[in-house]
Amino acid sequence: MIVPAEPLFFQPIYKETLWGGTALRSRFNRLLSPEQRVGESWEIVNLGADQSVVASGSLAGVNLGRLMPEAPDTLLGKIDNFGNFPLLYKFIDARDRLSVQVHPDDVQARANGWGEFGKTECWYVVDAQENASIIAGFARSVTREVVTRAVETSSLHELLNFIPVKKGDVLFIPAGSVHAILDGVLLYEVQETSDTTLRLYDWARVDAQGRSRQLHVQEALSVIDMTCRDQYRILPITFEEHGYQHSYLIACRYFALERFTLLDDKEIVFPAKQSFRVLTVISGSFLLRYPAGSATVSNGSTVLLPAALHGVHASGSAGTEAIISWVPDLRREIVMPLRSRGVQDETIFQLGGFRERNDLSRYLK
After folding, report:
1. What span, in angstroms and rounded, lies between the C-alpha atoms of 225 and 176?
2. Pairing with 69, which of 52, 156, 311, 319 sits 20 to 30 Å away (CA)?
3. DSSP states of 85-133 as a string?
């Protein structure tokens, strides 16, 4: 099978949930019925039975898991992939609050038989109702005993850190962070390829049959970070270019994100990276032109740009906004270009989140 150097579009995988809403239909014109409560749309995934299927072109009908071994360098680039597509992309539409949960890191996942990978993730707030918030971490440092007692007395929410959010906010959720997406928030999520979720607290919620969902209290307590932290929200580094804004949103060993926002009708070039790139249009649309042809990426759509695809030009109208993510060479693709533009090391450092667990630290003073 020949994997061409051209954009790959996939069929989304929809997950209906108790807490899901209808924003994907109304915001992105997805072909969903008004009755469907879709909590998650998995845009690109290679995880067990959940396999993204190519939607069009010469590879239509082929899933990502089958593509992976055919041309890993063409598709992924020169990165460690362990035979798997390393990232999972999704939209999350929270009509109601999600459970309070935590994910293990890679070492913890393997040690406990929960899979090959942990789950570090990040969120980009696509839309948020007025006064919306999310939970990330604890409001104060706690102990295992304090958390256990709070779960047993249904008072865990009193210990948690509620962060107000608005459209355009960026949050970094490393493995081990207790967290919950709350009602009225539409997120774009980039994460390690894992679905290991340890549910700690579910607001005493029951389903239509009066059954509560399973909790994983002891497992969650074995991996949870109980330190009070304040580095979940990431402040983007933004440059005003000719006719558009270019922002660095976040950077860690697993992923890096950039945002491009057109201020005028404009054509820009998406630079090649060491790995594949994933482009998601948050508003407007981009016409992509590349050596073998062209393709339109519309509002709310996600496309995989294989590592072998170079020379991608994108044109759109004012207000078009897109996010590009990839597996970064942190020194060459984050630190060096930002330093060359006069950005101080401390400012670059904050793109990596927690001071104690920051993947950028080895490259900075």
Report:
1. 5
2. 311
3. --EEEEEEEESSPPPEEE---HHHHHHTTS-S----EEEEEEEE-TT-E
What is the C-alpha separation between 304 and 90, in angstroms, rounded? 13
**Which residue numbers are catalytic?**
199
| CB count in 10 Å sphere of residue 150 | 18
In sign, the C-alpha dihedral spanning 330, 332, 334, 340 is positive
State the pLDDT at residue 246. 98
Domains of the chain: 8-233 (2.60.120.10), 235-363 (2.60.120.10)
Q: What phi and psi, each to the nearest 5 degrees, are found at residue 110?
A: -70, -40
Structure tokens, 15:
């997950």
Torsion of CA 303, 301, 232, 192, to 10 degrees: -40
* Residue 254: closest CA among 135, 89, 110: 89
The encoded tokens of residue 131 equal 């006064």
Tokens representing residue 311 in the block: 């020379």
List residues bridging with 44 in a β-sheet. 89
With beta carbons less than 8 A apart as the criterion, state whether 311 and 276 touch: no
Q: Mean pLDDT for each consecutive 10-residue tract of the chain (365 residues)? A: 90 95 95 94 97 95 93 89 88 97 97 95 98 97 96 94 98 98 98 96 81 91 93 97 98 98 97 95 98 96 96 97 98 98 98 94 92
